[in-house]
Amino acid sequence: MDTVIVLRAEGTVFRVPKSILAAGSSVFQSMFEFPQPAPGSEAAMAEETIDGNPVVRLHDSAKEVEAFLGAILDSSYFMPPPKAVDFHELLGILRLSHKYDVKYLFQRAIEHLETIYPIALYELDAIDKHRITGYDETEVAFDLTTILVLHEVGATWLLPYAYYNAAETCAEGLLSSGPWSQLSPDMQCTFIHLLALQLMGTERLYHALTSPSKCTTSDACDLTKFRFLATGDRRNRLDQSPLWYKSREALTASQTVRPVLCIFQCRVL
């Protein structure tokens, strides 16, 4: 008969078969191999138990542990892409699968994140953020939270696009975001630098793609363009994302976007 271990996270307890945890996690396997105190000994009397089962305290959030154990105990709970997954559960499973060395869950979590944080330009058109429920690409807090976890688990190959995506927001939104204070000083400096690079890249691309050759009031058009750039509304501004110009959507729109913008700018003034 399989023995049970009780895991306590915050105020929640989870009863889990030892054999299942040990089979998937080298950390738990090593933990269970530690010599146990002899029954009736002082150490055994001091050990916390529930219904005679030893209790292991985990210094993790109860919600993360619940998602992590659900993924281990139920094979259908956390399926590979293209199955949908909750954003917060995904990060919790990624963090704990790394912490407790559950390799197959770690790899599966990485595969999900690669669908929203691509590592190659040709993958831009394959981004499918709608499968990650609870994720809002217009809220920089989601990207900052992901960046913190990626640094923690060493998944550095996903960081470039995560930083890029977060840097698309305005400075005010970045600095007022909850996770901002959790970033190290070096990470905060990196973001400030990225914001400047993003703005410069946007201005160069916007100028190159919206300069009409026959416009008789080029100075006025330039002034209007700079006013437009200053709006900082990322929800309505595809040009704020320089990589957008590499996407299939941009190539399709290129024949109509440029003349419409140029005509609009000249008419405004």
From TrEMBL:
What the entry lists under SUPFAM superfamilies is as follows: POZ domain
Question: A Pfam family this protein belongs to?
Answer: BTB
Signal peptide position in this chain? none
Spell out the InterPro entries in the cross-references. BTB/POZ_dom, SKP1/BTB/POZ_sf
Q: Gene3D superfamilies, per this entry?
A: Potassium Channel Kv1.1, Chain A
> Which SMART domains does this one have?
BTB
Tell me the ranges covered by the BTB domain, including all copies.
1-81
Protein name, entry field: BTB domain-containing protein
